[in-house]
Amino acid sequence: MTWLAEIGASDCERLADDFLAQPVNALSSFAYVVVGALIIVVAWRRRRLDAPTVVFAVSLAAVGLGSVAFHGPQPPESRLLHDLPIVITLLFMVLQGVVLLRPGTRWVPPFIAGSVIAALLSWVADDAASALSAVLAVALVVVETLVYRGGHRRSSRRRQLFGYGAMAVVMAVAGSQWLLGRTDSPVCEPDSYVQPHGLWHVLSAVVFGLWWWFAMADQDASPGTDE
Predict the structure, then answer these.
(1) Does 115 map to a domain?
(2) How many domains does the structure of the chain reveal?
(3) Which of 160, 223, 217 has the alpha carbon at shortest distance from 46?
């Protein structure tokens, strides 16, 4: 558990020689699974349970399960299980924007191809998934900006701005918790049941859920209107 322990130790919570190496961080990772399940339930009740929603919900659940593995039992593939689902989820989000920017574009082939390439790169290079996540996060911001400016979504601009604002606020708080949850943070308490990194898991899961709601579910109004 040497290499994985060194990585996990950067998240403040003390590593225990138990099934769950970091219980708080491991259990809080289920927030992604819960949000993924809620997306399925909400979409089903709204009679909008389509393939993209299922793919996104499953990808988000995989993020959670990978994080549970990384902070919990820590099998040898923990780093891959933790990082790769994040890349795949971000790739999906970017491609959904591309589809809006270029009507008629098929998102499934590039999604499958990109996921396979990401998996191969992540398998051969430990830091590949982290780099890909950073690139895709920037790409997502660019794509979302273009989608908004072009009025490509059916919800009103006012609602879209509210959605972006809500996501930005929650993400800012989540990011602060990620920083405070590092081992070298001045508020780090390794034995505490309140771990900032665990709050990062919960809040970032909420951000993913908000994105789905405002980008995929809340699409009842006319394109680009302010009504």
Answers:
(1) no
(2) 1
(3) 217
